[in-house]
Design a protein that fits this description.
It is built from 16 helices and 13 strands. The chain is of the alpha/beta class and about 400 residues long. Helix 12 crosses helix 14. It binds adenosine-5'-diphosphate. Adenosine-5'-diphosphate binds next to helix 11 and helix 13.
Length: about 400
């Protein structure tokens, strides 16, 4: 059986999934795993297709001290215990810069290009590229595909792509890229199946996870996003503040004496729901808390989603549907109910029963704006792109495998 390996590498964890290629090019998820605690308390965990545990093994910090070492351990486990020799590997790569509007087959030249974007996403890009490089070194014949979080948003027009700053910076790459593109691309394609007429219209998708953003879709294409140059902008998130006056950053530097790396750490790890509540970045904990600061953090989250929905509806000049996705969007009926309440002026009205049972359509019959809950699947999107590029390769040989 032929398989595709999907890799999503971060600074201290590597998530991976294995999809088998079935008849007609259908992809079936076989294994979902991750190594987390890289360099501190590494642990390999994986589950099979039915959610059954396949492994839960701890390693010494020295054994798995880097992302490539984690990739090597996961790869060895897949080969030796599950006889998985993938025909290709698809990677999530956060930044495709201005040039890449679709996934690409990786070679040394592409890696060199993608390295140019390390400065645009210093916390993510180096970790995304590390396993690509190590797999290329170990298995040079194995096709690898880079799938970008930014690519789906390259359809933005000039107005959505610019900041009001001198043009030289734009040409150097300081643009409003937008992120979570693989999630939005998946939702756009799922909507074509779920509600084909609506998929052709104007839709706002709210990807509400530990990272959170919203995207305005018109005819299935991204026209605007709440995120910009980095994944810090827009909605408040688990530990990131979302929209922030740049004057706050100047204040942190000039008045608080913070260095660039202190500010970076602060903005990525200490703000958002965690900073505002002083309690937790986890929405479940905030919902369970009676602390007024937890309430403030949730109120702020909901309020900002409402504000941003207004902005995106203006970008779309109207609205035909609203979609919730990702951890909070898929699982928190309370947050969804509160957000839909904010969307009342746009014509959305909730069906509390359907919302409570996490139905696909949670708006009331007669709601002018239908509201959907669509679970996202970025990994399936990566596997699909990888298979499609694999088949388009000039030298495509589907039997090519690694030892
Ligand atoms: P990421 O992929 O960005 O790490 P997820 O999409 O998995 O994030 O979302 C994680 C977020 O979803 C966390 O804030 C978590 O608290 C929230 N979440 C998950 N399940 C629930 C739930 N039942 N109720 C409220 N929040 C939830």
């Amino acid at each position: 059986m032929e398989n595709i390996l999907v890799v999503n590498a971060g600074s201290s964890s590597v998530k991976f999934q294995v999809f088998s290629i079935e008849a007609g090019g259908r992809l079936r998820r076989r294994i979902k795993g991750q190594i987390d605690g890289i360099g501190s308390r590494p642990r390999l965990k994986a589950n099979g297709a039915a959610g059954e545990s396949l492994i839960d093994r701890a390693y010494a910090a020295e054994t798995i001290s880097t992302v490539p070492a984690a990739m090597a351990v996961a790869g060895e486990w897949l080969r030796s215990e599950h006889q998985i020799h993938p025909v290709a590997v698809g990677h999530r790569v956060v930044h495709g810069g201005p040039d890449y509007d679709k996934p690409v087959l990786i070679d040394h030249r592409i890696i060199a290009n993608l390295e140019r974007y390390v400065g645009l996403a210093p916390l993510h890009q180096p970790h995304n590229l590390a396993p690509i490089r190590s797999i290329l070194a170990g298995f040079p014949a194995l096709p690898q595909v880079a799938c970008f979080d930014t690519a789906f948003h390259r359809t933005h027009g000039a107005l959505a792509d610019h900041y009001a700053i001198p043009h030289e910076l734009y040409t150097e790459g300081v643009r409003r890229y937008g992120f979570h593109g693989l999630s939005y691309e998946y939702i756009a394609s799922a909507l074509e199946q779920i509600a084909p007429d609506i998929a052709k219209g104007r839709v706002i998708v709210a990807h509400l996870g530990s990272g959170a953003s919203m995207c305005a879709l018109h005819r299935g294409q991204s026209v605007e996003s709440t995120m910009g140059f980095t994944a810090l902008d827009g909605l408040p998130m688990g530990t990131r503040p979302g929209q922030l006056d740049p004057g706050v950053v100047l204040f942190l530097i000039s008045e608080k004496g913070m260095s660039a790396s202190n500010v970076q750490n602060f903005l990525y790890r200490e703000c958002g729901l965690k900073g505002l509540s002083g309690l937790s970045n986890d929405m479940r904990e905030l919902e369970a808390s009676a602390d007024p600061k937890a309430k403030l953090a949730i109120d702020y989250f909901v309020y900002r989603i409402g504000l941003n929905a207004g902005m995106l509806a203006a970008a779309l000049q109207g609205l035909d549907a609203f979609v919730f996705t990702a951890g909070i969007g898929e699982n928190s009926a309370t947050i969804r109910a509160r957000v839909v309440d904010q969307l009342g002026w746009l014509g959305a009205s909730l069906d509390p029963v359907e919302n409570g049972r996490h139905a696909r359509l949670i708006s009331r019959t007669g709601s002018r704006i239908p509201v959907y809950v669509v679970p996202t699947d970025e990994e399936l999107m990566i596997a699909q792109h990888t298979l499609s590029l694999l088949r388009k390769r000039p030298s495509a040989n589907p039997k090519e495998k690694v030892a």
